[in-house]
Amino acid sequence: MSKRSTQQDYARRLMKVVKLIWQDPTRHYSLEQLASVANFSAFHFHRIYRDMMGETVAATQQRLRLHFASRDLALDEVPQIRVAQRAGFQSSAAFVRAFTVAYGVTPGVYRRQRLLALQLKNLQEKAMYHVEIRTLTAPIHLAARRHLGSYLNIGEAFSLLELEIGKLTVPPLPRWFGLFYDEPDHVRQGIIGPESRSDACVEITADSDLPDQLQKVHIPPGRFAVIEHRGAYSELDHAYQWLIGHWLQQSDEQPAALPGIELYLNDSSNTAPKDLRTEIWLALDN
User: Fold this and answer.
1) Fold identical between 3-118 and 132-284?
2) CATH topology for 3-118?
3) Under a CB-based contact definition with an 8 Å cutoff, are residues 29 and 21 in contact?
4) What is the CATH superfamily name and number for domain 132-284?
5) pLDDT tens track of the chain, all 286 residues?
6) d(CA 256, CA 254)
7) Domain boundaries defined on the chain
């Protein structure tokens, strides 16, 4: 079997593991259980997963548990001990330690910060973002994997797309984008329902072939209002609220009929949530 065929076979087998983990991120699977799903020995599975996904499978599981815990902490009616249990932690102390390392503050402080931000009615009281008006002169070609449902679950589509990248022709440093076709704030909160549409995307060359489960999309030339948010993906709703609810209304600009666009400037597999950098692009009428 050629090296390329071997990599594609490994990717196909790891997709089963990714889908299983995302079905219930709070469930604890042993290394042996996940290895058997991919039909690897535990010894080889650990190394293959880390090499292809950029982190150990244990790190993936913990990252996902904390990701969903950050959402629950924004809901005042869920007690912290229940948040820890729903995130799959055996004790509150273990949850506090893991969350503090990843997010830079304790769960209690994080909850107070989130609730305060939600209660602020005057958006100008919050930290302002710097808005850059950026002009795109050529289209950005993307390979997209469709995701249906809550924004918080789109990470599964990105993980599956990452396993397909060996089949694509990409630039030397391909960029990763998210495209959101429904109201971003509603998608994040799960208000719209299970059929909310978004695309996990990676930049490709214009002539790249795509496997059947991916589709070609592009970001067209035009003008965009761009801000950068630093922090967890579950907090991006505040950035959208400021950009669309405050800045756009105060500007002389009109939004164009394009989906919401996010550009991910670093990698969640090796970056703490508090240090994640995400650009939000708002398409503007020319």
Assistant:
1) no
2) Arc Repressor Mutant, subunit A (1.10.10)
3) yes
4) Regulatory factor, effector binding domain (3.20.80.10)
5) 556 678 888 999 999 999 999 988 888 888 999 999 999 998 889 889 999 998 999 999 999 999 989 888 877 677 888 899 888 888 889 999 999 999 889 998 988 887 776 655 444 445 578 999 999 999 999 999 999 887 888 999 999 999 999 899 999 999 999 999 876 544 444 444 556 889 999 999 999 999 989 999 999 999 999 999 999 988 888 888 889 888 888 898 999 989 999 999 999 989 999 899 999 999 999 7
6) 7
7) 3-118, 132-284
